Amino acid sequence: MKKFINDPYKVVDETIAGILKAYPYHLRMAKESSRALVRADAPVKGKVAICTGGGSGHIPLFLGYVGPGMLDGVAVGNVFSSPSADDMLAAAKETNSGAGVLYLFGNYSGDKMNFEMAAEMAAVEGITAKLSIAADDVASAPHAEKNRRRGIAGIFFAYKLTGAKADTMANLDEVKATADKVIENTVTIGVALSPCIIPAVGKPNFVIADDEMELGMGIHGEPGIERTKLKTADEVAAIMADKVIKDLPFKAKDEVAVLVNGLGATPPEELFILYSKFYDILGAHGIKVYKAFIGEYATSMEMAGASFTLLKLNPEFKKLLDAPAFSPFLPQWRK
Q: What pLDDT is recorded for position 330?
């Protein structure tokens, strides 16, 4: 294992320390938890607070989306492990302005259990908290069982649009409705080329040959739906596009936002090669790309691979997508 670390059991806390030193005017630690980070200006008066959380190892997911126009707080777990309910509660207490809190997170059993517990604990504190659960991974369950799907890179769109909705001073029910509608219209599939190494484990979390790829593998190394010999970029893009286009399904004249996400060790050049083919395929189906995002939005340590996400847009979604937002982890937001 070759990594720039000190103690494999202190990676998360030392990462947080570095982030807070790098962005002291953007983020701060919650008073009641060293694993909860919030906007430096939290709470924002009159605004519904949006909090997320999940395991480390996925930067910029999750804490990279805390900022104006997006999230208000985040709870950070160990690598690939859920944060505690206490950490989630600390984030809510620090960001709640009286308008309530929306917990927006991915569909994993540990996260779901702890966020549900945190919402109950928040109620005892006099804070109204509701839950929206992202479930965009088409490889993890059939369309008829969408509630079983894992939440992966597509949660980025839920963060962005829901954050913009909260900035309009919409109430908690309206903010949750937006999150749920975005989640319903978002689909993703990934492909992995290599494993990653959890520092505390010290060895790869799965084995895959140099000439193989796995379609549908999860961001923690969960099994995919098919392992094959490595294909060309155009062949891979065609397989991925077919899976997501058929799932919702998408049809001619739909407008979409596209996310081509690198899993941690995929060069930008390769992501743009994939996007070029995705764009052509969407065009052949009569689907118009309104906005594209290419880069690392939800990684898996040093895993090589990529994911492809489509969000079906409507006029309200386009307005929310274009609304200003800021995080030092992301490029400046432009229309």
A: 86
User: What number does CATH give the domain 186-322?
Assistant: 3.30.1180.20
- Which long-range contacts link 15-24 to residues 24+ away (Cβ below 8 Å)? 15/56, 15/59, 16/76, 19/63, 22/328, 23/328
Query: For residue 251, what are its two tokens?
Result: 């049809």
Q: CB-hemisphere CA count at 13 Å for 315?
A: 0
Contact in structure between 20 and 27 (CB atoms under 8 Å): yes
Whether 143 is catalytic: no
Consecutive H or E run containing 28: strand 27-29
- List average pLDDT for each run of 10 residues in the chain, which is 335 residues long: 94 97 97 97 98 97 96 97 98 98 97 98 98 97 95 98 98 98 98 94 91 94 93 98 96 98 97 98 98 96 97 98 94 65
Q: Does domain 8-184 have CATH number 3.40.50.10860?
A: no
CA 30 to CA 95: how far, in whole Å? 9
Strands annotated E in 225-304: 226-229, 255-262, 288-295
Q: Is the previous residue joined to 8 through a cis bond, with omega within 30 degrees of 0? A: no
d(CA 180, CA 73): 19
Q: Which pLDDT belongs to residue 205?
A: 87
The full DSSP string for 150-162 is PP-TTHHHHHHHH
Q: How far apart are CA 70 and CA 44, in angstroms?
A: 12
Domain ranges of the chain: 8-184, 186-322
For residue 39, the one-letter residue type is R
Closest to 87 measured CA to CA, from 123, 58, 108, 111: 111
Active site residue 220: yes
Burial of residue 211, with CB atoms counted within 10 A of its CB: 0-12 exposed, 13-18 middle, 19 or more buried:
exposed
Tell me the C-alpha distance between 159 and 108, whole Å.
17
Give CA–CA dist 69/324, Å, rounded.
6
Q: Which residues pair with 54 in a beta bridge?
A: 76
